[in-house]
Structures are given as structure tokens and as C-alpha cells.
Amino acid sequence: MCIGEPMDPHTKRENEYGTLTDSKYLHQVTTMDSEMASRRPIIDTPPYYITLMTYLNYLILIILGHIRDFFGIRFQQKSHRDIMEYNGYAPWYSKFESFYVRRLKMRIDDCFARPTTGVPGRFITCVERLSHNHNEIHTFPGNTQTCLNLSSYNYLGFAESEGECTSAALKAVEKYGVQSGGPRTQIGTSDLQIQTERMIADFVGKEDAMIFSMGYSTNANFFNAFLDSKCLVISDELNHTSIRTGVRLSGAAVRTFKHGDMDLLEKLIRDQIVMGQPKTNRPWKKILLCVEGLYSMEGTLCNLPKLIELKKKYKCYLFVDEAHSIGAMGPTGRGVCEIFGVDPKDVDILMGTFTKSFGAAGGYIACDKWVIDRLRLDMTTPNYSEPTPPPVLAQIIASLETIIGKINPGEGTERLQRIAFNSRYLRLGLQRLGFIVYGNADSPVIPMLLYCPSKMPAFSRMMLQRRIAVVVVAYPATPLIESRVRFCMSSSLTKEDIDYLLRHVSEVGEKLFLKLNSGKSSYDNSIQRWDIEDVIKYTPEDCKNNKFFVN
Amino acid sequence: MSDITSGHMAVPTAIPIPSVIIATSSAAWFYLHQGLSKLPGGHHVISYIEKATQDDPYRTAVEASLILYGIYYYLSKPQQKKGLQSNRPNLSKQEIDSLIDEWEPEPIVIPPINDKETQETYWRLSKIPIIENHGISKYIDFTRDDNKESFENVLNLASNNFLSLSETEEVLQVAKDTIKNYGVGACGPAGFYGNQDVHYNLEYTLAEFFGTESCCLYGQDFAVSSSVIPAFTKRGDVIVADDQVSLAVQNALQLSRSTVYYFQHNNMESLEELLEQLNDQERKENLPAIPRKFIVTEGLFHNSGDVAPLPQLVELKRKYKYRLFVDETLSLGVLGNTGRGLPEQFNLDRSTSIDITVGSMATAFGSSGGFVLGDTFMSEYQHIGSNAYCFSASLPAYTTTVVDKILHIMDNDNSTVLNLQKLSRTMFHFFNSRVQLNEYFNITSSEFSPVLHLELKESKRIERFGYSKDTLFTELANLQKRKISDVFIEPFENEEIFLQQIVDSILVNHNILISRHTIVLKQETLPIVPSLRISCTASMTEDELLTACENIITTINKLCTA
Ligand SMILES: Cc1ncc(COP(=O)(O)O)c(C=O)c1O
């Protein structure tokens, strides 16, 4: 594998960020009105036989897996060494725990962790990979394939090797180097860091912010700074692993509520305030509500207005992880607060990452100044871990400045309007073709349901043959039967790219019997089975109209 | 219930049955008979009951009561469960509302109370140097305390980029070339197209350089341990850890769910004794399967600069069949003739001596991120089972090519590593030979460590601040037992302030930046006391370093005798 051969600059640019083909293909998002904000998502469900087939599919896979384990351990000890005791040592992982991975995921491992090279922009260059022993070992024949990229979290298209952001990063390498010295409190703070913190705080509308070099670790090492076992965390059941790890590390008690169910949440809060800590029944010291702004597997938003109402009513604190929504959503990219038109000051802690919309790396936490000051003293990350390196900071600053219009005025707005249009177009298009799609109208994450686990590799491979890179996800990231493909939209795609995508998804969907839409979640409550040409003809205009979206 | 509706059933006469029972059971049977005969397949049940009653009416009675009890048990279970869950008295709605109204949470974090206290607790923030307009290098310009203080051309003895190789032009060129081809961010986790060829290449290069089968990259060094250990441990597994491991490892142990035992810092007798005990215990318990067992320690200790005695550890781990986990965040690139870390220092082979090595690319290698070295099974499993790997975006491409380049440089030419080791030794012996300094301070680090830790002598600590390591730890343990997490211990705070005065005085008088060992007391779960840390980097000359050391010692002596 090597760095891609030189390409002529225009092609290279187009491959990373397609030029807008027509100003029709833009959409300005507006703040939701209260009617829309209070809508409950309507989830479409597949016919019963699909559910049944899915379970059957798993059953067969599991039975076959157990048979293979049974004989494998007896007759092929060498290749099962990883799950057997060896030489007095326990195996690294148990047979039972690793069953799902070894026997189910391994078979379709070619659909995951596909190696790539170059910029993950409008197109992504996948490195070809072969396996002759069921994905245990891959060989690389050295070819690459350029695929349409619907897999990277490159929401605003800032993954670029040219342009303002890249030159800012290059300048930072020259001026600041690449090393970061040591922990923030020891030596690792530079003026770039202060500047980034200032900018992100202003951007999200909080007094102060703190930045970290990894989004996962931002969450994983956050909660132990201010929670202990006498505090309670009420957490959405679908929260990201980083949040759960962080809460576990803090030792706080955790209660979860069903994803997005505000009535259950209210009941839970009331119960918990009345009952207090288990055994002692003393009141909780603090109650923290933890939610994500945009759920990356569902495409759904948290119900922020209701959460704020509850938080105020019951004196709880509110933590919102905006990893996927910051930059990508809202009229000016300021995330869920802006979509719902709520004051960011009403959310106690806003967290987000720079890995997604900003094309950089790391995470931030934004709060009131007095809270941040305290956290700087009490959090482990600034005192023990590496800070964000200068080129990444430069990328964050430049992309933020582009979004707010300080660099290249107009470009940021165009990026925002493009992702809004693209997301809506693809979402409505898929729905009209007859697929079951989850999530909010403006969400750049568009999950499309496949159900049967065996359709995942089929879909992923067929799309790869058609030069489209997609992400398929299954249990444990989703409920068991709701295997899905997740399209991540990007501003870098043109309307024509989405046409191409729709045509192929439609074709593949027909073959794989994926058009299962029952009309339950479509605007007119009728089964949708549009012809692809009609979809391409009418959807670009229709998708700008809210009336075609129920969620 | 012995019964009679169909006259031909015989009732044993030896036991008289009260007529009430006979009457009610007849009635029950009558209705049951009627109901059942209407159901499809009901007649099978009827004929079964009839037949059974004829053979043995008491059996029917027992069966019927069992069924009734089953129904009763089933119905009563939810109530029982509720009873277990809450012993809440039956409250009326008003009572609940008033309870909810009354509840006052604590502030989200401890608020600053007044100006004086604010100063007392927040002095640490005003001491953070903010480097202006250039990167980390040998000489730095910085400001502190909101631009109130500013310093220029200060000799930097506080950095962790020991080798300083990533400052060189050729390495920076690599970084720029990569950014020009890959941009900055990878925009996705490894599983979802975030794994670029450069990541694969670096994993391969690192594994080859350090002589292990495989490697796995992480986004941040601090997050590595706390993700690797929990990926492989579960309830019932055993971890034996050094009692001075750094906070990153402490977090990992806390998340591991396993039973954790501690042995005395670097004390192999203590370790062997513990392993022997555990061995006995295991033999007694006679478990169905062997639990996973780990010895956990650090290469160069973060808190003291000590080196772990690897040969003895390896011997013990082999004898007792433990796996050895070593956090080499500070020792890779530093120890060993060619910078290959702890095993090289002791002429051992990494792949056969250490099972899990955690390394950092942000310390000696001067880039960002962390990694884990080990055998293929282990590395592959991390790719699917380690949270910080699976649920976090891949590193920016340029960070990997930078490390790749640095490894190549180190492979071809180990002079930088040797130079660093020479400086470390010089620094250590220079401090160690000073009698007056040694009256006040212990040097806890080894001569191989580029970070020199100066810890106040216990007697001086008692004399000056009125507390000792032991009293501090008892106090902390007490707080922990009472589950109080807001820790403020005044004597400890005073010592930290004193150390900061030393740092400030060295800075103001000699233009040299050293630092306190920055720890967060409330997060530490193992005994720890404040210390000063002075770190040298390979970019310094011996003269520069020695002059600086002389100045540092003079200042310390002056402040300690004052
Ligand atoms: C909700 C949420 N929080 C945190 C993260 C972690 O961010 P990073 O990839 O920067 O480590 C993610 C990334 O997937 C996420 O989805």
C-alpha cells in the first residue's frame, strides 16, 4: 500500500469535495416550531414474516456456530487455541463471550474495517483485500477502488487535502511543530489551545470550554471529576459507550430509560427523588440526565425542550453529547440547541467532538466558567494525558471560522445548506422507494433497515461492487433484529451522486427484498413504492418541504 | 378433593371426608367439566382427571392444590418483587410532590465561595504556562495568569518529548506531506473506514520495531490502559498490581471488574508471597476453569521515575502462570540501547517476557496517540472488543507517519537515545551527589529516567507541614470509606504550594521551567505525595543541563533553609 499517485489538482479537488451543481440543491434549515419539536418519532415496522425470518436466520447461524465450535475444539485444536486453556494459561477471552464475534461476525468481516487510503472525502479510496481462509488473514493485492463515500463522519466535508483548513494545519506544523509536550497543566497549553477553547465556547453559546485530544476519553474521564457513588445518573439506554464508561468510572448509580421516552423519564426522576439512595434512602446528592443530541445509530434527536423542562422542574443537571450534531445540524451548525431554539445556557454541560463535522480529532466540554475552572483542577485528562496537537487545533480553528463565515464568507453557509439538502433528499428518496428509514428529517445519519443479518454482507458487498462505500451495523450496536445500513451524509456529495446512490440502492434493495415500507411513517400513511425515475424527478423539490416528513 | 360426580368412582372409606368438601368439590368439578367440554381438546383433560381420580383420588387432590399454589405464587410474585425494590411507605400524591419540592441538589461542582478561597483553590490554574506563538522546544516563551506574567527564552525542563526527534525538519516534512495527501482527521472509527493504510503500516512497524507479533493503535495514551485491561478481564479474574501504578492504570483496575491485589512497590518478595498465597487459595477453591491472571506494573513509573525489575517479574510470572502487563508510556524510546524499552534494558526479548505492553506516541516519540503491543490473538481481539479502539475515531494520518519516520531514524541511528541516557545519568548523579539537597529531598527516580522526581524527605514533611505519607493516606482512606469525594487536605495543599514556590523562584531567578508533578489528589486511589519533576530532553547539551541543575539546586537549598 502506498500513498496515492499524483492526480491532477482539479480531479483531486472534485474527488474530495464536489462542486455544487445547481443552487436549487440547497436547503436552509429553520428552527423547529413547537408542534414539530413535540412530535414523537413514528417507527415503521416490518411484516411479521420478516421478523420471523430474522430470528430464524440467527438461529441457524447460532446452531451452525455451536456445531463448528463443538467439532473444532475436538478435532482442530490448533486453530482454536485462542479459546482454549493452553499451557496453564486461561484463554485471552472465553469461548462464550467471543462466540458472536468468531462465528457470526468473522464470516462477514470483509464488510468491516475496510482499509482506505487518502482523504475520506466525497470519494474514499478503498484498498482491496482478499482472504482465502474466511477472513482470518487478509492479503492485499495492491489495488485500490475509488468509492462514493457514505461511511465517513465527514458531515461538512472538511476532510480535505487542500483549502483553508489544510493550509492552516500545514502552517501550524511549521510554526508549532507536531508535538504537544505533556499534560495541559504541566506544559501542554499553548495560545492555540486557549484560542480554540474560546472559539468553541462562543460557537456553542457557553461561557467557557475545555478541549481534549480524544472524544472518547473526553467522556470516559469526565464524570469522575464531579460525581460519586452518592450521585445518580439517568441515562438514555442508547447512550454511547464512552458515556457509560465514564459514568462507571465515577462510581455513580445509573438508571436507564427507554430511548427517547420522556414520560418514563419523568416517572423515573420522580421515583428516584422520592426513594433516594438504595438501602440508606438518603436523598441523592445530584441527579444528572445524560443524553446524546443526535443518536448515531438511530438518526433520532433527543427531545431537548422536554428535557430542559424536566430538568428545571426537578432541579436535575443536563448533559448533552453533541458528537454527531455539532456543526452538522441546526440553521448555523450550532447543534441541537439551535434546532429546537432553546438557549444553550439551559443545558448545564454541552459535550461534542471534533472528529466529525470539523474533520479534526478530539472533543470539548462547554459549561459555565466557574464549572470549567473547577473541572480543570479535578479532571484527570488535563492533568495526566496528552493535549491536542497543534495541526489538529489549526484544523479545528479554520473549520470553525469557515462555519461562522470568518474565512471565505458564504462557504460555511453553503456547506450547511448542502448537507441539509443532501440528507433530506436521500432520506425522502429512500422512503419513497419503499425502504424503512429511521430518524429525524434533518439528521445527516440515515439508517436504513435490513433486518436479516445475512442481508448485511450481501448489501455491503453489492454496494462495493457498485463503488459505493457503506457501513452496515448489527447487534450489539442495534437491537438484535434491526440490522441496518447507516448512510452518513456529507456536504461534499452532489445531487447527482445521490441520484447514483438511489438508483443502485433501489436495484439492490429490490434484489434483497428490502422495500418493506408499510406507510406507517410516511406523510400520507400509504405504502410507498415509487419508481426510481419519479423519485429523482420530484424528490429534490419535495424534500425541502417539511410536510413530507413525519419525524 | 376426592370426588364423586360420576358415581362409579370409589372413595376409600378409611378416611372420612367432611361433606362440605365433597359438596364444594363436586360443584367445582361440575363447572370445570362444563367449561372444559366446550374447549377444543377439553375432553382429553376430562378423561385424564376422571381416570386419575378413579385410580387415586388423593393424587388428584395433591395435583390440584399444586396447580392452585402455582397460580397463587405466580400472581403474588410481582408484589413481592416490588416490595424488595422499594421500601417506600405508601405516599399520597401531595406527600410525593412535597418531597420532590424539598429536594435540593448540591451544585454541579464545588462552587468557589469567596475571593480568598477562590485564590486558595485556584492558584494551580494561574500557574499553568501558556506557550505563545511557537511549539514545544528547548527554549520557550510563555505567559501565565492571564498574561499577568510573561517569560521569554526559558529553558524547558518540563517537557515529555524526551527524544525531541519530531522537532527536526525531516520529520516535519513527513507530517506536511501526509496532511497534503490525507488531510487531518480520519473521520471515522477503525471499523467504519477510518483505518487508513498508514495506520496499518504503523501497527506493523511498531510491532516489528519492538519485536512483538502485533500492535493496536489508540487515539490517546491516557485512554489505553483503561480500555485494554477491561477488554480482557471479567469477574473472577485476578490482577496483582504494584501499589504505585499511575492513575491511568488505577482507572483500568477500577474498570476491570476483577479481584485486585497489590504488592509493595517493586518488592519482589512481597509479590512472590502474594502469588504463593493466591496459588494456594486457587488450589483450595478448585475452580472449573483457570481464571485469567495478570501482574500489572509500569516500565518507568509515572509517579516516581523508578524502573520495574523486569527479570524477576518475568521469572515470577512464568512460575505462577500469570500474564505480565507493563505500562511503558514513559519508557519506550527511553530505556535500552536503541530505545526499545524495558526488555532491552535487561537484555530480554519482549515477545516472550511481556504479554501486554502499553506505549505512548506522545512522550518520547513526540507525536500523539497510544498503542498496545502483544501477540496476534490479543491484538486482534482488541480490534473488536476494546472500547476506546472500537468506539473512537482513528488517529489523524500525519501522527502515524511521523512516528513511522521516527522509528526509522531510531532504527538507523541510536545516538539520540544514547545521548538522552547520558544526560539522564548526568542529571541523576549531579543531584544525588549534593549533600545539602539530599538532606531535604529524596530522589525517587532511577538514573535511567529522563524525569527526575524530587520528593520531600519524610522528616522534613512532618517538620514543615505536620503530616506524613501514612497520615495522609489514612486520612484519604477514611474519606473514601465515608464515600466523601471532595478532598481538600490542608497540609498537602501547603506542601504543593511550597513546591510551586520553588518552581516559581527557579523560573523568576534563572529562567528555567521545571514543574510540580501534577496530580489530582481526589482521583488518586493509591498512596502518593507531591513531588517536583525535572525532565531533560535529548536536544540539550550537557553544559546547559548542568548549569541549569546547579541553579535549581541553589534555589532549592535557599528556599529550604529559609
Ligand atoms: C456520542 C459520541 N460520543 C463520543 C464519541 C467519541 O468520539 P471520538 O471518535 O472523537 O473519540 C462518539 C464517536 O463515535 C460518539 O458517537
TrEMBL record, chain A:
Transmembrane intervals: 48-71
GO cellular component: endoplasmic reticulum; membrane; serine palmitoyltransferase complex
Subcellular location, record wording: Endoplasmic reticulum; Membrane
Catalyzed reactions: L-serine + hexadecanoyl-CoA + H(+) = 3-oxosphinganine + CO2 + CoA
Main location: endoplasmic reticulum
Cofactor: pyridoxal 5'-phosphate
Broadest EC class assigned to this enzyme: transferase
PROSITE patterns: AA_TRANSFER_CLASS_2
Gene3D superfamilies: Aspartate Aminotransferase, domain 1 (3.90.1150.10), Type I PLP-dependent aspartate aminotransferase-like (Major domain) (3.40.640.10)
EC number(s) given by UniProt: 2.3.1.50
SUPFAM superfamilies in alphabetical order: PLP-dependent transferases
Record Pfam families: Aminotran_1_2
Pathway: Lipid metabolism; sphingolipid metabolism; Sphingolipid metabolism
GO molecular function per UniProt: pyridoxal phosphate binding; serine C-palmitoyltransferase activity
InterPro entries assigned: Aminotrans_II_pyridoxalP_BS (IPR001917), Aminotransferase_I/II_large (IPR004839), AON_synthase_class-II (IPR050087), PyrdxlP-dep_Trfase (IPR015424), PyrdxlP-dep_Trfase_major (IPR015421), PyrdxlP-dep_Trfase_small (IPR015422)
Keyword Ligase: no
One annotated GO biological process: sphingosine biosynthetic process
Matches recorded under CDD domains: KBL_like
Positions of the Aminotransferase class I/classII large domain: 146-504
Family to which the UniProt record says this protein belongs: Belongs to the class-II pyridoxal-phosphate-dependent aminotransferase family.
PANTHER family: CLASS II AMINOTRANSFERASE/8-AMINO-7-OXONONANOATE SYNTHASE, LD36009P
Name of the protein described by the UniProt record: serine C-palmitoyltransferase
Organism: Maudiozyma exigua
Gene: LCB2
TrEMBL record, chain B:
Gene3D superfamilies per the UniProt record, alphabetical: Aspartate Aminotransferase, domain 1 (3.90.1150.10), Type I PLP-dependent aspartate aminotransferase-like (Major domain) (3.40.640.10)
Family matches, as SUPFAM superfamilies: PLP-dependent transferases
Keyword Mitochondrion: no
Cofactors (names): pyridoxal 5'-phosphate
Keyword terms of this UniProt record: Acyltransferase, Lipid metabolism, Pyridoxal phosphate, Sphingolipid metabolism, Transferase
Keyword presence, Chaperone: no
Segments forming domain Aminotransferase class I/classII large: 153-552
Example of a GO MF term: serine C-palmitoyltransferase activity
InterPro entries: Aminotransferase_I/II_large, AON_synthase_class-II, PyrdxlP-dep_Trfase, PyrdxlP-dep_Trfase_major, PyrdxlP-dep_Trfase_small
First-level EC class: transferase
Pfam families listed in its UniProt record: Aminotran_1_2 (PF00155)
GO biological process: ceramide biosynthetic process; sphingosine biosynthetic process
EC number(s) from the headed UniProt entry: 2.3.1.50
Domain of life: Eukaryota
Pathway the protein contributes to: Lipid metabolism; sphingolipid metabolism; Sphingolipid metabolism
GO cellular component, one term: endoplasmic reticulum
Family label: Belongs to the class-II pyridoxal-phosphate-dependent aminotransferase family.
Designated name of the protein: serine C-palmitoyltransferase
